[in-house]
Fold:
Amino acid sequence: MTTALDEGERWDWWLVVGGTSRLLPPGMAGLIKASAKLMLSYRDHHWVLLNGPSRFEAQIEAGMWRPEEVRWQLSLQYVAGGPQWRRVKQHERPCVDLEVGSFHLPGPKWTSLEEMNYWNTEDEESADPLSWMLGPPGGGYFDLYYRESSEAEPVMVNMGSCNWRVVERVGTRCAVELAADEGGGRLHIEPATDEVLVLPDGTVVPETEPEPEQSWKHRAHVYAVEQVPFGVVTVKVPRNAGDAAAFAHARVRKLLGVTRPPEYVTVHDLRHSEATSPCLGDELHVHLHYHGYYEDT
Amino acid sequence: MSWVEWQGETLPTTKDIASLDLTVEAPDVDGPRQSWRFELAHLIPNRNRAPDDWRHLQTLNVSIAEMGIQVRDWRELAGLTIRTTPQWLAQVEGCGPYAQLVDPSMEISHCKMTPGKREFELNDDWMSIEYELRFGQWDDGCLACELDAWAVPSEEYHRTEPETPEELASFAMGPPNLRVITRAAFDGGRIEMERCGDDPTPLALQRLREQVGEVEVVDARVHWPSRYANGPANPPVKEPGWRGKVSFRTGW
Structure:
């Protein structure tokens, strides 16, 4: 498996030419059907994934010294699509954000993202009434934010844990599958059965395959399959570091095994922008962008 | 040559041509790789103007910021028709690399100036998502093109509720209120680049060839954006070798 963030190796570019296909790219089919459609099934809208904010992110705090301490987050953001919305501004359409936060990787490098598998596993933490004291469940906290319109009251659901897994990683992109129920806790997802209609004379009637969005409606409140890039690492850097970006990159190299320099770096001095008084734990926030550059300001 | 009929009135013909501008997105970001922009400035000159008077008596600008098309060769634009039916919109639906949806809507800005006075007689903005843009054949670096659009005032254009199937089905009813016959030139654009050394120009031009075929480039320039930072100890850095873009002009 290529680790495209290692120095001296090429990125694995997806050269999508001549269209805006939303199919899972070849070579990233894994356990998901080869022709799997990238999509979200939630309520009755047709959803379009927002590139940029949809990504894996890592956060390295000052006191983290081991790779397994690094906190990770998976974000998927969508907005309603379809021709019927053509005259409604993007920010006024229904939108939904899915977030799996505060999970840790099993291995010492960022590439162990590909080992993340919380699909049909036992959710022991949610059975324990004191689970909140134990920290985040193994697969992280799952949160859902839904807003029907810019004027509607948003719906925020903390669902605890969810079913999610990285089916495959190619370069810096992971094929992610996620399913959740609004009741919270992990679901046991039965594989879809291929029902066949046979007439009394033995004739097999070919059944038209339902759209994946529809077939998931009765199996989980939320179901998503997407190709998600490794996007951003935020490093908290001591104010007295000589070169904040170099310090941050060294931390990422040590804790995540990323040797390739980032595509873009932003340094945020919160003390400067918020005019707060200095204190000892007052660090610079350095964002290292490994997947293009997008920052939601 | 640019011929325009707007709201039933034929404006004086001018020598303006439309421009086709291409952005090739970097390959490490998601979304469509090509973003084509169509722009026409139909400018009716004020021929008897005093030195401090308006340069134009009337202007009509037509802009499609994102045409929603992907081509393997720029020559394929010849003979292409974009008819923005709901079915076509569904086909080109997607999201660019920076969380903005592909939006092929058209903006029309119409201004009439009052000669001798620094004031507008008219300054209207219109929008359309129902139009047909037809390209003819290439001729001397330009593409013949015709446009019919059904536009509405911009303040009436945006809605807060989705359209009904009946509203969508009534596509392009009645005669268009904007008709244009002009020529369009593919005159340049930009190539967004990932980190690839101190001079991304050769790779950028190779990417341009891979995306839209051989293009006669007469000018290519590298632009290095500032790396964002705030606070006195972290001044913005503008340095070669980071993510940048290469703008280019074609020979047409």
In short: Chain B touches chain A through 52 residues (CB under 8 Å).
